[in-house]
Write a sequence for this structure.
């Protein structure tokens, strides 16, 4: 039995060209819509698999605008059972304030008898890319933390976390619970919702909270876009003669083995 | 990759199903030097074709749309990209069953095999469907799916093989160049293409592209939500893309369509979600494609549950996941019809837009024929871009009407149904007075026209059962027995009719006579003061219009035509003015209000207001002149569309209210009443067998088939003369007849009254087929209160067009006996036209 809390953020889908809003305070979701980042989709999937294996509960928490309910329901449809939204305008919240608010939710739930043994986060936010919230949250809660993790299992009341090492090898961490783990995409394949899952998610009552305090941490001046990565097209050939080159390419990409 | 050529005979912008069909048919019809460009990559450049669900239900209440669909299916089959699956339209309510019975009428009329079936029929073909809530279904075996992208590639390749086409993908239009009102070049990101003919076939982007030339294509991008659920074991068991019939769940506005192991669930139930053509993402900005917008889950959730309840075992199967969900963009228009033809604003700039997959190849053929010959085999006048008045091209109008219409996509729409929004726009000068008179306004092209007047309710007591009351709610919806009471009052005394909605344009200039003579069938070389009623036909001898022309002076004709079709008529005339500028068309629609005064007392009433000679000798039928009516100067025209003595009275718009009052004051001693369009458009004309454009008359009908030929053909040449002369020499393949219903009693004992569109069958329900291979259907239906009969008009096979012939009409799947009463234009009422004199 494990009680997992997954922290998620409503972000613009970044599979199209990324645009900023006119004031450069946020990424513009007009054309692409909003979603969860792949890191967080993997975190939700990891949590769902942990609970399927060992029993327990998956809860969600997010901080953001009221529309974030849409993303919470999407995650509820693929394995989570409860959700909390701290409703606020996110643009005044930097990483330290977000970590503080999540910590407040974890503490409040603990007081109410819900101890989140394992808190999963995405390794970094898909839009603002701060790379700070997991470590700050662990510090605020006084828990151990590891980042860049792809898979997690629970063994004998401890979290065993695997990630990729900088040298291309593999790292394994053994953490006492409760712990904080920041997840990078790639360790699991997030499932798609089923219709029953979606219908069930629709019925979950989402806990709505207000921020515990006005933001005090460092704010944001503006976002800037990185220079576009030049794309190059390589013609592999034409007609049936190109087939071997395509097979080679697919093998190098890991699509074919 | 091909370079952008510097010039072309024609540029087709867009490589979706429409653009691809068009280049194929243009090439087939002999066009060369065709350049087709698209801003996306091939074969799926990112428009609506790329995400279409690609299924085709052939039966539609519109003959034009059905014919385009049937032609498209034929072409898809020729290309071997059609897979037949069959399809159900299921009913969850008795009201919907009635609509499905009406659909059977359309199926029979258009000659499409279809059947009303019970839930067990559905269950047998789709074992995983829950039938508890299904009352019945409309089964169309010929429903199927197509590969529209493959079809597009095949059609482009055919044009390429003929050496007729250059295709340049990944090129974006940056501007359209117009020189002296004519398109002259397309500027693109790959260079400028000089061309005198350009077709906008860009789907949801069409308004944006046309606007570059100053033209309007009034459509809006709108969202159609669709999800794909799978893999579903019950579907995966069978090979191929589709092996189960497609289900349209009409009462939840959803469809379920198998696609391999997946089930696509689409919805028309959500709020209307409209987008701006300028704000569709670019290919780079888009997540999937520019027309596959981010899915808004909350809008879809109610449909999800309904779909699940219908097919719980399939949609809830283990492993069946929602793997794809989009807000797909498609094109909607204010009246639901496509937008085809040359724009009114820019010569040489054509539109082929707002077309669905099911009509694509048919539209491609029709527009290509139109561009080549000036007309198409399938009449597409309901889709003619020239139909729009300026106010109908506004963004605000488009948004309001499409928002109101969206929920009607699978709705039950009564043929007389009125719009709720965008009303009160074009008001006749006597509108305030009409409101006081209890006018029930119906809208036509923005005009508010009294259909009947509640103020005439007292006439019901006077006429009793002669007003032919209707018991059934559907038959009497958007109808009132007051219409028939007004009719009787007009026939016995006099009626005053507001005709302000007429479209009116003048042909002026030294060569005005030559110009009109060339366009109309009747002799136009008449003395000033004469009125001509005439067909206008195309080169193939099909009707473009029927209208009246007044010769006001040696160099001045005035054309009066119906408001609904007025803008297309005006363009037809304007496009055919002499090249030397010797005549010109001037629109005066907004300058004049027209009031009709008809009935046995009309002369007495008008006589009280004028000292001019209005006797039959002094002011004969089919003549016009300026007279004094009270203190107003009025152009009076002695003509009648209701078969009574009387006049159309034309006054400056600002004097219309005054004339309305004068006529009522003068008419009071004779009991004259205001009469609505219910009489003018239906009961009055149908007793006289007068044909109406858009009902009896269209480009697929000839003067001979409509029995409107005169004894002689004028010597002067005119458009369509050759075809018309040939038609006169041949036996007609079909004959327009007038019938009356012998017995209205339905099986339930309630009397039923047909509204139009119903199939005409042999007395025992057998199919009839005319020389064109068409099946007869009711073109117009209406009360004939003077005769105490319900009258139907229909084109019958010549061997059935005999007086006294006993046939049947099918209404809501019951047969009613009818008798052929006229086999030519002989009116049922007053065949000698004594009343008009």
């Amino acid at each position: 039995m494990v009680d997992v809390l997954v922290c998620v953020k409503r972000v613009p889908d970044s599979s199209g060209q990324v645009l900023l809003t006119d004031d450069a305070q946020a990424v513009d979701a007009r054309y692409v819509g909003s979603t969860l980042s792949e890191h967080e989709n993997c975190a939700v999937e990891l949590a769902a698999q942990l609970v399927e294996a060992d029993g327990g509960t998956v809860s969600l928490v997010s901080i953001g605008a009221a529309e974030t309910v849409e993303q919470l329901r999407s995650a509820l449809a693929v394995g989570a059972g409860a959700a909390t939204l701290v409703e606020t305008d996110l643009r005044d919240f930097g990483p330290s304030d977000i970590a503080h608010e999540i910590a407040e939710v974890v503490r409040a739930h603990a007081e109410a008898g819900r101890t989140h043994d394992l808190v999963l986060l995405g390794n970094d936010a898909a839009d603002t890319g701060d790379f700070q919230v997991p470590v700050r949250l662990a510090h605020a809660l006084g828990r151990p933390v590891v980042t860049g993790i792809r898979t997690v299992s629970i063994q004998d009341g401890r979290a065993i976390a695997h990630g990729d090492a900088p040298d291309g090898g593999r790292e394994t961490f053994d953490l006492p619970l409760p712990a904080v783990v920041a997840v990078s995409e790639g360790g699991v394949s997030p499932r798609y919702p089923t219709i029953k899952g979606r219908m069930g998610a629709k019925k979950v009552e989402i806990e709505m909270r207000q921020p515990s305090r006005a933001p005090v941490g460092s704010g944001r001046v503006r976002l800037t876009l990185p220079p576009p990565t030049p794309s190059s097209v390589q013609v592999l050939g034409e007609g049936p003669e190109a087939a071997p080159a395509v097979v080679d390419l697919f093998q190098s990409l890991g699509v074919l083995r | 990759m091909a370079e952008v050529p510097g010039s072309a005979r024609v540029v087709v912008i867009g490589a979706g199903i429409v653009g691809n069909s068009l280049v194929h048919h243009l090439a087939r019809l002999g066009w060369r030097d065709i350049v087709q460009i698209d801003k996306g990559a091939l074969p799926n450049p990112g428009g609506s074709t790329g995400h279409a669900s690609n299924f085709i239900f052939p039966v539609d209440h519109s003959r034009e749309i059905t014919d385009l669909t049937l032609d498209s299916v034929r072409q898809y089959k020729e290309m071997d990209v059609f897979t037949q699956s069959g399809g159900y339209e299921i009913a969850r309510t008795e009201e919907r069953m009635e609509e499905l019975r009406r659909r059977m009428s359309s199926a029979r009329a258009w000659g499409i095999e279809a059947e009303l079936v019970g839930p067990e029929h559905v269950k047998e073909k789709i074992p995983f469907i829950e039938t508890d809530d299904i009352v019945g279904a409309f089964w169309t075996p010929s429903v199927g799916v197509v590969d529209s992208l493959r079809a597009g590639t095949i059609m482009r390749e055919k044009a390429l093989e003929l050496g007729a086409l250059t295709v340049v993908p990944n090129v974006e239009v940056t501007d359209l160049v117009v020189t002296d009102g004519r398109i002259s070049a397309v500027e693109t990101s790959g260079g400028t293409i000089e061309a005198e003919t350009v077709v906008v076939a860009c789907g949801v982007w069409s308004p944006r592209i046309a606007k570059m030339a100053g033209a309007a294509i009034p459509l809006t991008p709108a969202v159609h939500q669709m999800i794909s659920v799978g893999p579903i074991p019950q579907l995966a068991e069978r090979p191929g893309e589709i092996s189960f019939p497609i289900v349209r769940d009409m009462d939840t506005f959803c469809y379920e369509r198998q696609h391999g192991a997946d089930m696509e669930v689409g919805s028309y139930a959500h709020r209307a979600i409209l987008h701006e053509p300028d704000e569709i993402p670019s290919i780079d900005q888009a997540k999937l494609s520019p027309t596959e917008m981010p899915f808004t889950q909350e809008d879809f959730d109610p449909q999800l549950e309904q779909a699940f309840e219908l097919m719980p075992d399939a949609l809830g199967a283990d492993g069946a996941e929602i793997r794809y969900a989009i807000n797909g963009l498609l094109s909607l228009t204010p009246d639901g019809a496509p937008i085809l033809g040359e724009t009114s604003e820019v010569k040489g700039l054509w539109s082929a837009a707002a077309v669905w997959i099911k009509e694509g190849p048919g539209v491609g053929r029709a527009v290509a024929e139109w561009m080549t010959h000036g007309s198409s085999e399938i009449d597409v006048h309901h889709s003619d871009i020239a139909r729009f008045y300026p106010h109908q091209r506004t963004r605000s109008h488009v948004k309001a009407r499409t928002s109101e219409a969206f929920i009607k996509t699978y709705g039950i729409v009564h043929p007389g149904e009125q719009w709720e929004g965008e009303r009160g726009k074009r008001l006749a000068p006597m509108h305030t007075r009409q409101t006081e008179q209890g006018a029930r306004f119906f809208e036509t092209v923005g005009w508010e026209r009294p259909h009947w007047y509640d103020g005439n309710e007292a006439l019901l007591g006077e006429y009793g059962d002669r007003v032919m009351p209707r018991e059934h709610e559907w038959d009497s919806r958007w109808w009132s027995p007051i219409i028939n009471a007004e009719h009787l009052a007009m026939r016995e005394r006099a009626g005053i009719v507001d005709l302000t909605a007429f479209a009116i344009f003048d042909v002026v200039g030294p060569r005005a006579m030559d110009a009109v003579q060339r366009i109309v069938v009747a002799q136009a070389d008449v003395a000033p003061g004469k009125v001509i009623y005439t067909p206008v036909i195309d080169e193939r001898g099909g009707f473009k219009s029927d209208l009246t022309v007044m010769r006001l002076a040696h160099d001045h004709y005035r054309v009066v035509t119906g408001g609904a079709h007025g803008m297309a008529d005006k363009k037809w005339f304007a496009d055919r003015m002499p090249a030397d500028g010797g005549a010109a068309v001037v629109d005066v629609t907004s300058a004049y209000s027209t009031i009709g005064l008809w009935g046995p007392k009309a002369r007495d009433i008008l006589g009280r207001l004028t000292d001019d000679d209005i006797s039959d000798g002094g002011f004969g039928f089919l003549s016009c002149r300026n007279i004094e009516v009270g203190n107003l100067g009025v152009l009076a025209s002695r003509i009648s569309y209701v078969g009574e003595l009387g006049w159309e009275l034309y006054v400056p718009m600002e004097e219309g209210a005054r004339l309305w009052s004068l006529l009522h004051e003068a008419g009071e001693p004779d009991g004259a009443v205001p009469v609505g369009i219910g009489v003018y458009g239906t009961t009055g004309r149908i007793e006289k067998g007068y044909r109406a454009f858009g009902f009896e008359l269209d480009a697929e009908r000839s003067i001979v088939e409509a029995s409107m030929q005169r004894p002689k053909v004028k010597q002067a040449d005119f458009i369509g003369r050759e075809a018309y002369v040939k038609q006169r020499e041949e036996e007609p393949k079909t004959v327009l007849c007038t019938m009356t219903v012998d017995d209205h009693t339905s099986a339930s004992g309630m009397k039923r009254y047909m509204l139009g569109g119903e199939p005409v069958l042999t007395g025992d329900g057998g199919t009839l087929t005319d020389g064109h291979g068409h099946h007869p259907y009711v073109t117009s239906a209406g009360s004939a209160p003077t005769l105490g009969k319900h009258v139907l008009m229909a084109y019958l096979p010549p061997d059935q067009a005999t007086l006294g012939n006993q046939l049947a009409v099918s209404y809501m799947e019951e047969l009613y006996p009818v008798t052929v009463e006229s086999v030519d234009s002989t009116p049922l009422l007053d065949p000698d036209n004594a009343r008009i004199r």
The radius of gyration of chain B is 28 Å. The first strand of chain B starts at residue 10 and ends at 13.
